[in-house]
User: Fold Transcriptional regulator from Dinoroseobacter shibae.
Amino acid sequence: MFTRKLKHRIIYMANKNPNPPSLGRQLNFTTGQMNALCQAWLAPHGLSLPQWVVLSCLWREGEISIGLLAERVGTGLPATSRIVDRMEDRGLLVKRKDPEDRRSVLIAVTAAGQALDPLARFYDHINEALLAGFTPTERSLAFDLLARMEHNARAAQERDGP
Assistant:
């Protein structure tokens, strides 16, 4: 169900711009608002959204290599290394050499990082805020449609290349 405000925004945009609506633009604006909401909710805990994503991964998986961590959180190794370094400086994470592969570095959560564990289900609060007013069917459909769009984008990249 659309809210009255959203309906008026869509009608206004359609009348103002005769071009069809841009899905990318809408996703970008929605992502921006969601990120701002996440940052506002995480700030009192001294965390950024990328730091929470790293903690969340490590809470689920335990100690893992920084390369695997980068893969799991979906960022490049340099960006993940910078995030981990900042979190290590704050005492939330610890790095150590992998005893089985001296070239590899393992990352683990410290006791201070574990103390933030109540934030593990933080995304439930975000989902509730974003999906307020949606029926259970609409909620399921929203996830379905976004997953299909992600799949289509990946397929187009593989098919069409750079």
The two ends are 38 Å apart (CA to CA). The chain has two domains: 4-130, 131-162.
